[in-house]
Amino acid sequence: MSMKNKDLLRSKAFVDGKWTDAHSGKTYDIKNPADDSVITSVPDMDEEDVKEAIEIADREFPKWSSMLAKDRSEILDKWYRLLMDNQEDLAVLMTMEMGKPLKESMGEVAYGASFIQWFSEEAKRVYGDVVPNHAQGKRIVVIKQPVGVTGIITPWNFPLAMITRKVGPALAAGCTVVIKPAQDTPLSALAAAYLAQKAGLPPGVLNIVTSNSASEIGKELTTNKLVKKISFTGSTKVGKMLMEQSASTVKKISLELGGNAPFVVFEDADIEAAAEGAIACKFRNAGQTCVCANRILVHDKVYDQFVEKFSEKVKKLKVGNGLDSGVDIGPLINDSAVEKVSELVEDALQKGAKLVVGSNKPEGRFFDPMVLTDVNDEMEMFSKEIFGPVAPVYRFSSDEEAIELSNKTKFGLASYFYSRDIGRIWKVAESLQYGMVGINEGLISTEVAPFGGVKESGMGREGSKYGIDEYLNIKYMLMGGL
Length: 482
Hints:
This protein is of the alpha/beta class. It has two domains: 6-257 and 457-478, Aldehyde Dehydrogenase, Chain A, domain 1 (3-Layer(aba) Sandwich); 261-439, Aldehyde Dehydrogenase, Chain A, domain 2, CATH 3.40.309.10.
């Protein structure tokens, strides 16, 4: 399958409005995870390249931040329209570099573009306050101002949406940005930058550095004094490291880190709806999402019924190259991911779990979707993020046990449960120690709601009216002598 707009496939980094190579001249290959074919090569930049991009973003910050909010809004709106006009080509490119089925890539392009549209509107709504004065002859005014140059580091599993979810509010607020996309999937980011340029985004406001050395680039972004804000999506381990590095210059920071989402099915649930929700929640992107169901907890009374319905649906899922028609599950991103999933499944099988659907024998990077029963909290997959098409189903016998098992993790990103009892719904929703709760719904992501977690799943929120606050500082001004 080919792209209509060949210009969307970029093989250079984007700095100061120009398509550029690394100063060293080094490059590295971007491969299709489905067959390891080389799509193109991109610059392998180092800290000197990043320093230059940061200095350019700092140079352009005063001009961009002082631009009328209405004018920034219009540029973002044009960018949104261009993203949607090129939805099919962007989806093909995404599937080629990341592997997810084309229909999911189409959905991600629309989802990613929605953040640009949303924040194009929010740019005009950064309001301050006039606070009642505390003394005669004085007045208190509170305003919000952009934080400055923002360093953005994104993962490979949503190569466009993780960019736009951060860049949208940053640009709307008046910040300039330097982006380090995941080394495996920079092409969606570069294509988006190409369209941003076409939309009229001034040079130097948005910069993308490509590199095969994530730690080197990350350290420069977190320690450079010109960078005032870091936004990162990725593993908790890396997030902690970036947080520690950012402390050296006390940067504003937002982190969207690992997850271990429970998906709870109570005895009064609509079992058919719960099974459908579990399919959507668990197997989207081959299970490679931070909010997908990692532990499916089902009440004893409906356990067998749920497993039967759920398994029937899992067996119908088609595995293959994401560009092929009718494919539901594509490849895992790399060989390390395959090895990790295989080890988690083998650990569970050795400790008594039963594999009722699928096989723990991948063909290359392709796994058949798996359903495991008789799983317990002593198995490694209870505490570790699977990030693969494996659905472990646990038992519980009371609301209290379900809540305890759900919260028995250091993570607190997304959670889900199915019930038709309004009292139980309120009790459980309030008791779950997670930043997001899906109730009788397996898909919760939307640009209008705040996305983020608690505990070791991070801090800050993306999307919604709250998302732009992550890129703003509050200034209090006291006027006397009035």
